[in-house]
Lipoprotein signal peptidase
Amino acid sequence: MLKKVWLVAFIVLFIDQLSKFYIKTNFELHESVEVFKGFQLAFVENPGMAYGIEFGGLFGKHLLTIFRIGLIGFIIWFVMKWSRKKASNFFLLPVALILAGAIGNVIDSLFYGIIFDKGTVYNDQLMSWVGYNGLAKANFDGYSSFMLGCVVDMLYFPLFEFDWPTWVPIVGGTHYKFFQPVFNIADSAIFIGIACLLIFRKKAFVTKTGEHIHF
């Protein structure tokens, strides 16, 4: 059973990192290309959480990376524990997706600041993250240090947009676009994995021997 988990995780992780390396070395920051109506490849760098959320500057970034590493360790332990007790594919495969997604984004945070020569960095004076110009190269010149790399995002689905009528409270007169966050393969894998666990929870959290999966 574990072979399936590692295989799925490896395939997703490989696709995730391949897509990030391609975007990082072929797109300038904030460059976008429309693939088809409602879908664009749009390169942004995310120093924080999934879907462009960030918090706490450098401290928040270190804290988030440590949390992610701990979460990965817990997921691996959890998978190994319940795979020995004959957990079903409805549990193992979604967890494999979540594991791959977590590892994919941690790799960016840990190593991208070392691998690439350009990237988004934190400016102490401005107390904000600052981008860069031009194409980045994977030449190990480094734009930052260990644990300070930024996650590469590129999947953008601006399905529709409109202007709110001026009479609408708070948002009246503003422009709205759905769906605004830019994300990556790793984020998608985590979302799909969690969604599958919720949808198939009656089958996912019961082993083939009838034992209920719990922490």
In short: Residues 1-205 form one domain. The chain has a mean pLDDT of 89.
